[in-house]
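Subject: sequence -> structure tokens, single chain

Hey, anyone have a minute? Need the predicted structure for the following. Not urgent.
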Amino acid sequence: MAAALISLDDVCRAAAVLDGQIVRTPCTHSRVLSKITGAEVWLKFENFQFTASFKERGALNKLSHLTEAERAAGVCAMSAGNHAQGVAYHATRLGIRSVIVMPRNTPFTKVRNTRELGGEVILHGETLADAQEYLERELVAGKGMTLVHPYDDPLIIAGQGTVALEMMEQAPGLDTLVVPIGGGGLIAGMSIAAHGLDPNVRMIGVESSGYPSAYAALQNDPELVRGGQTIAEGIAVKNIGRLTIEIIREQVAELMRVDEATIERAIGLLASIEKVIVEGAGATGLAAMLSDPARFVGRKVGLVLCGGNIDTRLLASVLLRQLVNEQRLISLSVDIEDQPGILARVAGRIGESGGNIVQVHHERLHRGHAKGATLEVMVEAQDMAHARQIFDDLIASGFTVRLGTGGMEFD
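Reply:
Had a minute. Here:
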């Protein structure tokens, strides 16, 4: 049994190693999310770690077990994000040289952050598989450096398992843990820890619909991993770990797959309700609950907000799209006569209805009459009903109005 390679004792030893060297992140009850989902929801804020990710736990546990010779030779890792920063930060703290191989298309901010934390970055290949091939050939075999694997290593898995140790202590009585799956290190370690304390805890793994690597492995069908763009790039892993998949097979009750729209909604809810920034991977647990709330009703559920490293432009886009989806931000096309004062009349009508004009564009080059024009107005409303009121009030004032934003309609 794969789980026999790692035990609750291993996770407890990892917790002793990490004590005082990482953040013991809070795990708190969310009254609003509990009301929305029908479950008792507890949130573990791993995005509060110094590098904004749980990855520090496994990285530090692995680094702390190196021999003097291994420390002298240095360590290497392949990563496009959170693991890179965790390894670089703690290796630098411990006086160990770290070299991180990242795909050439890695966002510059992640490359810069890794370098600022003390890691030496090599950009190689188009994928993590390319980066790993180079690392194993040039750094492990060629220079004798030690690989700090992102997930497929017993010490890494034990370190990640300390998340569950803390959660079970901070929120006694948790009966369900919902955990994101990329390479599988987090859910593998958490399953061993949670079941070591309470064998009845239900472990549910969540994957991006485009990257269901664990589900594909269990079904023995790699074609299920379609790939493509995803907002949850932190768990966009095509191949699950060989060790982690066996632990998942033995310990995880259910696997769920969530789509992009639901992940976006979860990011938006966490920002608006909990006032926290969470990356796509970190929001997948909540996304799973939103996609199938009946599965969780009446249960005491722990969610891991596993990371907060989301690009600020992407976050801004997600939050704006959330406002559009909720019809709190609507685009209106208003046909007008091109004459003085007409813009003030439209703006005044919207203001009287309680709307806030965010953006306006006066379009004269259109297919209608030469003396006509169109106002493209972006308006902020309180909610869907308020947006409808603004729309109806403009029509009642004699204006011809259409909804913009890709032909959106009122529900």
